[in-house]
Design goal:
Blueprint (H helix, E strand, L loop, with lengths): L24 H30 L2 E4 L2 E4 L3 H7 L2 H32 L6 H13 L2 H12 L5 H6 L9 H28 L4 H9 L4 H29 L3 H7 L8 H11 L3 H26 L1 H5 L11
Helix pairs in contact: 1-12, 2-12, 3-7, 3-9, 4-7, 5-7, 5-10, 7-9, 7-10, 9-12, 11-12
């Protein structure tokens, strides 16, 4: 056999061949996404940075006077600010706790198979669809002492709108009615991801309804619970509509958002208002970061809080 007739040497496997110079898919994806991320960062960060800068000035009309931390010193000695923080925390803790319990009950009901389930789901979700400002006006009218709808139904005579304690009860009731369906919707999405085989196996083993709920539903629903609580906690800390409609700028019931707007419109002090908005942002951010760091890993891999899941 001549040299020209000899077979060519085998080609090395594709994995052993030198890679062609160029941009990989991952790097190319980052390049394409960078403009979008940059645009979103500018949109999200600019108002925050602008508010922080403006909080360093005393603004009177069109005049600005740089006072460094003067507005923050005023904030730390402002009793109205601490009262607003207290009102916001009370509202957040109580309303989110009640919304979670009611939302979980609603989710369990909507997850069952029964005649008229679609209509039931629609009825439960109706309050969430109604605009918050409209719902606030309706609930304020119901709690008003003159028409006395709530008083007539309950057979009592309570001045709901002028008493700080009863006004807070009214605001929490209205907010629970409005947003419990949202929590139910998030939890329902989590319930529908739980395989039915788990319940069937537990039932064969003799586990009762409560045991199945405690040992199967709650552990597997944990990621959805964390997301629902996180969303509602952060949102409740920024609550404005119900508190403003019920009591206006009254210090006795003002939340952080209402107290901030007071210095934007009712008593214009734009520098101090920006300091209040910055403080509100910091409080919300701290709570959100703490919530995510404390319980966030469960939403990623289902691992218990504070432990990382095993890599597969």
């Amino acid at each position: 056999m001549t040299l020209t007739q000899q077979s060519a040497p085998p080609r090395p496997p594709a994995s052993d061949q030198p890679k062609r110079a160029g941009i990989g898919e991952r790097a190319l994806g980052k390049i394409f996404l960078t403009p979008s991320f940059a645009f979103m960062a500018v949109i999200a960060l600019f108002p925050v940075i602008y508010a922080i800068v403006m909080s360093l000035y005393r603004i009177t009309g069109f005049r600005r006077e740089f006072i460094a931390g003067g507005n923050y010193a005023q904030l730390l000695s402002d009793g109205g600010f601490y009262n607003a923080v207290g009102n916001t925390l009370v509202f957040t803790v109580v309303s989110v706790a009640i919304e979670f319990v009611i939302g979980l009950l609603f989710a369990l009901i909507m997850n069952q198979a029964f005649a008229g389930r679609g209509v039931t789901r629609a009825i439960i979700l109706v309050p969430w669809v109604i605009p918050t400002s409209v719902a606030a006006q309706v609930w304020r009218y119901m709690f008003d002492q003159n028409p006395g709808f709530i008083n007539s139904v309950l057979g009592i005579d309570v001045n709901w709108l002028n008493d700080p304690t009863w006004s807070m009860v009214g605001i929490i009731s209205a907010d629970v009615w409005k947003t419990a369906p949202f929590v139910a919707l998030l939890l329902l999405a989590g319930l529908q991801t739980i395989p039915g085989e788990f319940y069937e196996a537990a039932e064969v083993d003799g586990a009762g309804a409560w045991r199945r709920f405690w040992s199967i539903t709650l552990p597997l629903l944990r990621p959805a619970i964390i997301v629902a609580l996180l969303f509602r906690t952060v949102d409740a800390l920024r609550m404005f509509d119900f508190a403003y409609v019920f009591s206006g700028y009254s210090n006795s019931l003002a939340t952080l958002s209402v107290y901030t707007q007071r210095y934007l419109y009712a008593e214009p002090e734009l520098g101090y208002a920006n300091a209040l908005s910055t403080a509100t942002f910091i409080i919300v951010m701290i709570v959100g970061v703490f919530f995510v760091r404390l319980m966030g890993p469960q939403t990623v891999d289902g691992a218990p809080s504070g432990r990382k899941g095993k890599k597969r």
